[in-house]
Q: What sequence folds into this?
């Protein structure tokens, strides 16, 4: 029986996080726009059995949180960008790729106009390719995402295969084996003696920022307190500021406000205007100065909160 290939593509204009939730096959992701920007998303996908490829492009700076597929491993890399992106504690540039065990939590900040690639595969298929190419199985890390350094030429060779599978449909299925083999060779080449110490540092930073996110989610609706956040995370305010700036390009306070603004927008889009007001929703989410709140909201989303509520009402009447 001829292998069945499923293909799809997506082109979004405007910020629409619901349509992006499944942008990695089998994963569940939440998207947060970081600054006001023209928002355009392009996404291509193909799948054959338990192997799939997703390629995306965001025109705007965005933070992505969530979990990758629970039943398959994921390989990720950047194929184009205007500035380095950041993922799970390390910088993702053009000489690096990431390996995510099944179900790994993702914490990704995409720079504007970044193009990313995610390849989802079974562990058994990867180890089979390793045995065929290398004569032995790979020692795969089990405790979270890892970042691997290779040469630009090596990563481009993998990307060439991926692009061929996307844009030459007749060769798609025949490219699965070569892609798996190339990934196995990249992993074997990238694992060096310095990897363990680097991985430890990456995990420490990722865990610190994950604790900060958890604290901010639990304290939603309360005034931002930098000192309390640093104490809850277990570091200094200065260190926390530095980690946030390196990872997201913004301060902890800015991120807390961004989270709250996204929470307001989500509620406005789902609320009943006959029962709730913009002011009431804003107060529930921690905003008590309506003038500043409206300015922050318009600066991030390009419209005032009342316009968002009117949009929601219009959709409900349709």
A:
């Amino acid at each position: 029986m001829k292998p069945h290939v499923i293909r799809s593509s997506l082109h979004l204009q405007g910020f629409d996080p619901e349509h992006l939730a499944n942008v990695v096959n089998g994963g569940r992701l939440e998207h947060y726009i970081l600054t006001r920007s023209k928002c355009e998303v392009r996404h291509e996908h193909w799948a054959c059995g338990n192997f799939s490829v997703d390629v995306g492009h965001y025109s705007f700076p965005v933070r992505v949180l969530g979990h990758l597929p629970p039943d398959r491993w994921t390989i990720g890399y950047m194929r184009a960008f205007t500035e380095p992106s950041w993922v799970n504690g390390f910088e993702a540039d053009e000489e690096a790729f990431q390996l995510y065990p099944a179900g790994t939590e993702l914490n990704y900040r995409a720079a504007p106009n970044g193009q990313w690639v995610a390849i989802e595969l079974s562990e058994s298929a990867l180890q089979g390719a390793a045995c065929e190419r290398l004569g032995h199985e790979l020692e795969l890390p089990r405790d979270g995402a890892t970042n691997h350094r290779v040469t630009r030429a090596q990563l481009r060779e993998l990307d060439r295969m991926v692009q061929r599978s996307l844009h030459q449909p007749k060769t798609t299925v025949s490219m699965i084996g070569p892609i798996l083999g190339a990934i196995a060779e990249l992993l074997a080449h990238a694992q060096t003696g310095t990897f363990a110490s680097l991985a430890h540092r990456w995990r420490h930073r990722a865990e610190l920022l994950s604790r900060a996110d958890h604290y901010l989610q639990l304290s939603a609706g309360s005034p931002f307190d930098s000192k309390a956040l640093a104490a809850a995370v277990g570091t200094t305010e200065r260190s926390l500021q530095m980690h946030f700036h390196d990872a997201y390009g913004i301060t902890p306070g800015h991120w807390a406000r961004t989270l709250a603004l996204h929470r307001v927008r989500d509620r406005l889009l789902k609320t009943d205007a006959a029962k709730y007001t913009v002011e009431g929703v804003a107060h529930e989410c921690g905003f008590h100065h309506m003038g500043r709140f409206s300015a922050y909201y318009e600066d991030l989303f390009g419209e005032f909160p009342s316009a968002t509520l009117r949009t929601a009402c219009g959709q409900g009447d349709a």
Summary: The longest strand covers residues 40-48.
